[in-house]
Amino acid sequence: MNSHPHYHGHRQRLRERFVKSGLAGFADYEVVELLLSLAIPRGDVKEQAKALIARFGSLRGIMDAPLEQLQLVKGIGPVTPVALRIIREAANLYLQQSAEGHDSLIDPQALFSFWRARIGALPNEVFQVGYLDSSYRLLRDGIETLEEGTTDRAVVYPRRVMEAALRRNAAALVFAHNHPNGNVQPTEQDKVLTKALVLAATAVQIKVLDHVVVSLDRVFSFRTEGLL
After folding, report:
1. Where are the alpha helices (DSSP H) in the chain?
2. What count of other Cβ atoms lies within 10 Å of the Cβ of residue 134?
3. Angle at the Cα of 17 (from 13 to 18), degrees rounded to 5?
4. Each residue of 9-58: pLDDT tens digit?
5. Is the pLDDT of residue 4 over 60?
6. Fold observed for domain 104-221
7. Taking the domains of the chain in order of start, what are their residue ranges?
């Protein structure tokens, strides 16, 4: 008589399929099952996976959902949402490190996709700087998140960014921030800040490749719109 619960065999089959063919042929809920099995070592997680897909629409929707919203799904608990967030941030770090020194961000679509994936779904506004070499590739540890609270960005950011760029021997910069409300049109403050950053960069002979404003599915490019 088999002493192992039925879900053991199901999990093993999912893992064997993944090892053989990656995620090819997997339904969305099966991908979520695989992830949940890492955080929930016991029990059948198929129903939780299907419930998450039903509530958030897709794997991306699940990974970008607020932690407290994930906890509302029956059977998820407090630990699994944190595990999913760790997986998401590890994936973002992997993409960043893969791009460092390898993939040029001169292509606008590559640039847009990169920052939409990094910060487009964040619930709070974040302003980031990418430090690039002369081929527009990210330098090692080439992304910095600037957090100055209520301090006037147009005063603080240019000085801080240029000091960091010179320390890193950066040849170019790209700026990115998100608008959590989904409206990617730049504010007047965004425009003032961009002018200040470009002026400061020009003074030290560093090129500003672009400033992009992103949401989950949209991008505004200062360069594409003729504002750089």
Report:
1. 6-21, 28-39, 46-56, 59-64, 67-70, 79-99, 108-119, 153-168, 188-203
2. 10
3. 115
4. 777 888 888 888 788 888 888 889 888 888 887 778 888 999 999 999 88
5. no
6. Cytidine Deaminase; domain 2 (3.40.140)
7. 6-92, 104-221
CA gap 30, 175 in Å, rounded: 37
Decide if 217 contacts 179 (C-beta within 8 A).
no
| Neighbouring residues of 17: CB distance < 8 A, sequence distance ≥ 6 | 25, 26
The region of weakest confidence among 43-47, 90-94, 205-209, 210-214 is 90-94
For the chain, give the number of residues: 228
Query: Could you read off the pLDDT of 138-172 as tens digits, one per residue?
Result: 888 888 988 755 455 656 688 889 999 999 999 99
Structure tokens of 152? 């006037």
Cβ neighbours for 139, distance < 8 A, ≥ 6 positions apart:
100, 101, 131, 132, 133, 168, 169, 170
The answer to whether the CB of 80 falls within 8 A of the CB of 70 is yes
- Taking each helix axis from N to C end, the angle separating 46-56 and 28-39, rounded to the nearest 10 degrees, works out to 120
* Bridge partner list, 146: 127
Domain at 6-92: CATH code: 1.10.150
